[in-house]
Amino acid sequence: MLYSSHSFGSRFTLDYTSLVLVILYNGYMHNLG
Fold this sequence. Notes:
Layout: H1 2-32
């Protein structure tokens, strides 16, 4: 239970980080243009 919970948390964090990076990248390109 604990291991699966940790794995899920890591996966969620990874997805969230990717989402934030995409948003920051899009915002940067928008400001550039």
